[in-house]
Amino acid sequence: MSRSPKPAWLSQRPPTGERFTEIKRTLREHDLNTVCEEANCPNLGECWSGAEAGGSGPGTATFMLLGDRCSRGCNFCDVTTGGMDPPDPEEPEQVASAVAEIGLDYVVLTSVDRDDLPRQGAPHFAETIRAIKRRQPETLVEALVPDFQGESALVGEILDAGPDVFAHNVETVPRLQWPVRDRRAGYERSLSVLRQAAREGESYVKTSLMLGVGEYAHEVYTTLSDLRTVGVDVVTLGQYLQPSRDHLEVSEYVHPDVFETWRKVAETELEFLYCASGPLVRSSYRAGELFVSAVAAGADPETARSTARGR
Question: What is the SS3 string spanning the chain?
């Protein structure tokens, strides 16, 4: 089956600039992985340099912890499955050093799934959050975590480390969890992780959805409603792009106007704190700029969740 050509609105410029080069050099010196690079994110240069073209917004980078090989095999993801190495005990301090050296205002920490580890890497993840906060307390940290097989104690470890934002991605609507995600993942499990974070933590809670994998509009609306009901404060929506011919095919290239409609529905009707929505948006897209703007406007997670529970 031949693949449809990408529409013009998905065109992008390669990342360039002094700031981009500086960050890339620092990451190599510390031998660190970023999702920005591993997943070939289309917004890499924009986020690393700052949200605005001139680099005036908060610089954001997404570090991938626990190696670059995953214990799961989701059909949308380009990260290699299998052959995982033991966690690097120096990684938490290496990440903290890189964050300080680069001068990032907002850091996203994520990781591969590590079902092979006794505690699935949660302690390593939590220690990285603490290492950054010890060195630079003013740096905002977003923890984009796996589902930890739904083990509440492991989710609690992340919350106890004090991230400013707790994120876990549901990825798609309930009907399409498989074939989009690995069979070990699931919609209800992901909702339970997000619900726990909203109830037990002091962090803002965030998730992300891909469009263009075969979902219907009513399914997107129902999913957004579910997320708001369990206490999710922030949602992002972006276009799924097929990494290779071996991955899930794109069902539809969703027009930018549709993404804008979903943004308005999420923010106005469902009252999410904010929604980043567009073809090139990814989970961490302009995360620092949007978060700082929302908090500066006076929003707080408990008020947002009270509104959600009252629906």
Answer: CCCCCCCHHHCCCCCCCHHHHHHHHHHHHCCCCEHHHHCCCCCHHHHHHCCCCCCCCCCEEEEEECCCEECCCCCCCCCEECCCCCCCCCHHHHHHHHHHHHCCCEEEEEECCCCCCCCCCHHHHHHHHHHHHHHCCCCEEEEECCCHHHCHHHHHHHHHCCCCEEECCCECCHHHHHHHCCCCCCHHHHHHHHHHHHHHCCCEEEEEEEECCCCCHHHHHHHHHHHHHCCCCEEEEEECCCCCCCCCCCCCCCCHHHHHHHHHHHHHHCCCCEEEECCCCCCCCCHHHHHHHHHHCCCCHHHHHHHHHCC
CATH architecture of 14-309: Alpha-Beta Barrel (3.20)
pLDDT tens sequence across 141-151: 999 999 999 99
In this predicted model, what pLDDT tens digit does every residue of 147-163 receive, in sequence order?
999 999 999 999 999 99
Give the Å distances, CA to CA, from 123 to 15, 114, 155, 242, 307. 34, 12, 10, 33, 33
Check whether 101 has a pLDDT greater than 90: no
Range scoring the smallest mean pLDDT among 66-70, 192-196, 297-301: 297-301
Cβ distance 247 to 179 under 8 Å? no
pTM to 2 decimal places: 0.87
Query: What does the pLDDT average to over 192-213?
Result: 96
Beta pairing class for 140-144 and 80-81: unpaired
**Spans of all domains in the chain:** 14-309
Whether residue 174 contacts residue 187, with contact meaning beta carbons closer than 8 Å, is answered with yes
> Pairing mode, if any, of strands 140-144 and 165-167?
parallel
